[in-house]
Amino acid sequence: MDTSFYLTTKLVHHVTLLLQIIFDNTARWYSGTGSYWQDLILNRRITRTKIIANGIYPLSMYETTGYISDPLVMMHTTLDPIQLIWNQTLYRLKVLTAGRWIYFAACPIPRYGHCEFTDVEIVLGLYRLILKVKGQELLLAKQLLELNAPDD
Fold first, then answer.
1. Is the overall model pTM greater than 0.90, yes or no?
2. Which stretches of the chain score pLDDT less than 50?
3. How far apart are CA 62 and CA 59, in angstroms?
4. pLDDT computed for residue 50 by the predictor
5. How far is CA 51 from the centre of its chain?
6. How far apart are CA 133 and CA 43, in angstroms?
7. Is 113 part of any domain?
8. CA 75 and chain centroid, separation
9. For position 23, what pLDDT does the model report?
């Protein structure tokens, strides 16, 4: 890694820590709509905020609790380089702690890549969600997966 990049990154990080700036979009330009005019409208309408820490973190209201009231099927590739698999485990623990495990199903998919699901895995995830909504459980998931397995 380039030393100047490392030093610059660390310097910005430490200055941010000293100032305790949690979030600041006051000078940020948002883009990506595909149209300069839509980007312009977006940037004129977006709320500009600068949050400085004072011991109470205002973003904590967005922290997940695991208290879910609707069924949730969380599919996750085990070797995802972007969203690490341990996040699924942590969320499962939150759901268990909140006593809402009946609404939650974790589906780790043994594969590299971010959300690299096959069509069959997506359909099975949807099917599992439908069964959870109906109050049923998918008892024969292994058999269903074996039906789709390629013949050797």
1. no
2. 1
3. 6
4. 78
5. 23
6. 39
7. yes
8. 11
9. 75
112: left (phi over 0), alpha (psi -120 to 50) or beta: beta
First-last CA distance in the chain: 45
> pLDDT tens digits for 27-71?
889 888 889 999 999 999 988 887 776 655 555 666 788 999 999
Does 67 fall in a domain? no
Examine the domain organization and report whether 37 and 104 are in the same domain: no
Do both 24 and 90 map to the same domain? no
For every residue of the chain, DSSP letters joined together read: --HHHHHHHHHHHHHHHHHTEEEE-TT-----SS-HHHHHHHHHHSPP-EEE-SSS-GGGGGS--S--SS-EEEEEEEE-SSS-THHHHHHHHHHHHTT-GGGEEEEEEEEESTT---HHHHHHHHHHHHHHHTT---S-HHHHHHHHSPP-
Which range of residues forms the domain containing residue 83? 72-148
DSSP code per residue over 91-131? HHHHHHHTT-GGGEEEEEEEEESTT---HHHHHHHHHHHHH
Amino acid 15: pLDDT: 57
Nearest Cα residue to 105 out of 81, 141, 80: 141
